[in-house]
Structures are given as structure tokens and as C-alpha cells.
# Entry
Amino acid sequence: MADVSARGRSYRYVGPAGLKAAVQPGDGGRRIGSAVDFGSWVVEQSAAELAEPFTFVVGVDGVLRLAPRRSEHVACAGGGMVLSAGEISFMREADRWTVSEVSNQSTGYCPDVSSWAEVARALDVVGLQRPSGFTHEIVFRRCPDCQEHNVVREDDFVCVFCGSDLPAAWNVDPTA
# Structure
């Protein structure tokens, strides 16, 4: 279930059950809780890897976790709940690393755009310069009629599967 705590709403995995079932003990993205953690992680990445976005989650502990782009968010989270999830890119600017792009693009967790606050906090702890919000916001909604998950485009709150109206407020997790 989604839970709203002092840290913000947490999101449970709502994607295909088989992907969550495939998560093994020890799976999970690299924990990045400090500038030292990020420095150790980034030097292990090749130029080709750094040219692509990475999968990220912010765990319910508020800590950023990173995995290669083609990783499933649920695996990056070790199967657990998250405060946000999406894709993130880094670039070297002068003598420091910065976040060049970041989105909430995760069809496994479908986090609301309001989860940016948790991403910002996690990046600030690490000391990474960042944008003021998601550089690409994804609006997720669940259709109340057919129950399918939708990505809302251009403020068109209509289900692409059955044509029903979608709610204005986030509602992806039916137990929230």
C-alpha cells in the first residue's frame, strides 16, 4: 500500500508480479548515501554507461540507490517500497558531478510527480547539484473503470484503454 509518512508517500510495486518474484536476496541498487559513496560508484562506471541514464530509487530510508538503466526498479529497490523511482543522468561540470536529467519514469512504481521532494533530499545529502524538479515529469493514473495504468499525456486525462475519464489526483495503487 502507499503510505504517507513524515518523509512523504511511499510506493509499493504495482508492476508485473513476475518481475517482483524474480528479485533475489541481495538484489538492489548501489546505496549512495554520501558524496564518498557517489565518488566510489561513479569511478566504476564506463564512459558508455555514463552516457546513458541510470535506474534509480529512493528507498523508504531516504537513500538514493542506483543501478544500470536496463535494471528493473523493483530489483533496484530489492523488492521493497520506495519514496520515488525513475531514471537519472549525470554529467561532469567543471570539477564536479551534477544531475543533468531526472524523471519519475517507473512503470513498476508509478510514483507521483510530488515524489520530487524525496529525490531532491536524497541528492542534496549526496551533495550533487540538481535541477529544481523532474526534468521530465510522468503523470500516472489508474483507470477507475478498467483498472489499467495510464501515462497521462498533454493533460488529457482519458484512459487510452477504455476511454473513461481519469482522476485528477494520483490513484495508481488501489490500496492507497
Summary: The mean pLDDT is 94. The longest strand covers residues 82-93. The longest helix spans residues 116-126.
